[in-house]
Write a structure and sequence with these properties.
Elements: H1 2-21, E1 25-32, E2 37-45, E3 50-59, E4 66-78, E5 81-85, H2 88-91, E6 103-108, E7 123-128, E8 138-141
Antiparallel strand pairs: 1-2, 1-8, 2-3, 3-4, 4-5, 5-6, 6-7, 7-8
């Protein structure tokens, strides 16, 4: 009986761990024209619960031809919603200036039970964000 119970607990813990691994990785969102403009966002979710965000824009004939903005902090997942947080003492400095406090993103992926041929790209969609230019953007997993 103890062996059966231990085995069930082990399997349960492995399935929980496997589900959280689905979120981990690099996500990207790129907007560009052939010659003039390039805007690229990159988000990396690490296994230890931290994240890094990089925003890069290069606009030809703009006042600021090249702009880099960075953010970092911690993330947690519940169901398919990822909540981001930033701590002023740990996550902000000269380089990391973007505030992810109270930001949320929805994780979208093809359900493993879906055996159809339709293609659903794995992505994150920010549904709550204090920075308006990131709200409702799709970040596709690389």
């Amino acid at each position: 009986m103890k062996l059966l119970l231990t085995t069930l607990i082990l399997i349960f813990n492995l399935t929980i761990f496997a589900q959280s691994n689905a979120f981990i990785g690099d996500y990207n969102s790129t907007f560009s024209t052939e010659v003039d403009h390039l805007i690229e966002y990159k988000l990396t979710l690490h296994q230890d619960g931290t994240f890094l965000f990089h925003s890069y824009s290069k606009i030809k004939n703009g006042f600021l031809p090249e702009v880099n903005k960075y953010g970092k902090g911690k993330w947690t997942a519940k169901d398919n919603v990822i909540t981001f947080s930033s701590n002023k003492q740990e996550d902000f400095d000269e380089k990391y200036t973007l505030n992810f406090k109270n930001s949320k993103a929805r994780f979208v992926a093809k359900n493993p039970r879906d055996k159809s041929d339709r293609i659903i790209k794995t992505k994150l969609t920010f549904v709550e964000f204090e920075i308006p230019w990131v709200q409702r953007l799709d970040f596709f997993k690389i």
